[in-house]
Predict the 3D structure of the following.
Amino acid sequence: MNQARQLTQGALMLAVYLVLLLITIYVPLVSLVANLFLIFPFLYYSAKHPVKFSLVLFIGALILSAVVGTVINLPLTIMYGTTGIAMGLCIRFKKSKLFTYAVSSFVILINLIVQYTAAVLFFNINFIDDTLKQLQISIDRSVNFMEKLGQTMDPRMVSQLDMVFGLFKTLMPSVFVLGAFSVAILLMAANFPLAKRFRVDVPAFKPFRQMQLPKSLLWYYLITIVISLLVGKTESGFAHSALLNVSFMLQTLFYLQGLSFIYFLCHNKNVPKAVAVILTIITFPVLYLVAILGMLDLGFAMRQRFQR
């Protein structure tokens, strides 16, 4: 009887996934919302039932994706299916929300890397290079258009744009990582409240204002700076690319720490949450200053000072 119930719920979740997939494929605009919930059938089912049944659900979803859509939809199902199952299993085994978040982000990252590599190797599609080429073509056309009107673009501006393109390409590993972690938190924010309504015991994060990164990150950042000085300012090579990506990731973490400190201050001084949100928006142009604030918070235990 129990196995029959598991199979019945699996068929129901498969039907739910099919509906969401069809909306995603064929209904514009609404597909953006449906995308957020494609992991839900896998999350819910794997949180309630053993892994072997979740794998059966996953295989069934792959077959349906190929039947109702095209083979192109398979990567979508693979990403959302594996991520949903990973989240569900973490919930099933009572893991913390931070652990669930880390595992889900890692699964998404692996999917992105594998699918990007497969697109380059087997289909000769490199969307990063293609996007940069299109941007470069747009800039060249703008420069030519201005020259026809008798105006010239500042060579320094053109040089800066070229530098930005090169920097973006160098930072692609970091972009992949940040993208994976951003998608994971977005999916959790959308699906965990829904799962809770269906009596799934989802874990909870501590408030963002209580976020506290390990102080060892300061030493990692210092080591990165020292190695950068020793290596020199060469703009090519693996060492330069690796150091740039590590530095970028650490600065992003320090920015989040600084932002968390701002939220802490707002809560400590009974400032309305709306003010904290406005401050978050205002800080975008000065990300580096907020990152420095995060470093000071880690290094000098500033929260303890404000609580005295």
In short: The mean pLDDT is 84. The two ends are 60 Å apart (CA to CA). Residues 143 and 154 are 10 Å apart (CA to CA).
